[in-house]
Amino acid sequence: MRVIPLHRNDPLDYACVSYWVLGENNLPADRNTLIDTGSSHPENLTFFLEEMARPSKGIGKSAVEQVILTHGHFDHTGGLAGLDQQFAPDTYAWLPAGRRPKPVQDGMVLTIGDQSALLLHTPGHSDDSICLFLPETGTLFSGDTLYRITDHLGAYPKAYVQSLERLAELRVQAIYPGHGAPILSGAPAFIRSCLANVRESLIQE
Fold first, then answer.
1. What is the pTM of this model?
2. From the record, what ranges are coiled-coil (predicted)?
3. What CATH code is carried by the domain that includes residue 41?
4. 20 to 30 A Cα–Cα from 150, which one of 101, 125, 131, 196?
């Protein structure tokens, strides 16, 4: 599996880190996947297309066969319209989106690159938040469900506690979050630390 982060360093364009996931050997069964689409900034699509022109994607295969949206906030979904027009990908999201929306459910299995992934409904940051866990490599694409919670001064919905508890039970080895650098070591401790701080915070029913 190849994971290619896509993010323009533009202080005037608030956007998530998108992840373009390809199979290691470009096999026909691989699914070239884009996790989140960034913002609607006019240069966003141009940037994505330039980056996608470089790696090998498999003979006759579209660069983006499917899009998976971790949630519906603008900085994660704004680029979907342009990518829809360019690639017409299948789109998986908790709330239907895109020209070719596909139904989703908690626990369903998708192929991402050359690996199987579990789609997990993880409400808390938003009601429609999802994460993707790839058991073969312990890879977690967490959207905004996981971010660096370093104190217990915030307030969180009970659903968020439950979502973090669920993630803490997984054998996570690497986290690719919606913002910031990937966490490639100490992932279990990172999740436990976030969960501990949330548990000590104000929990809203």
1. 0.96
2. none
3. 3.60.15.10
4. 131
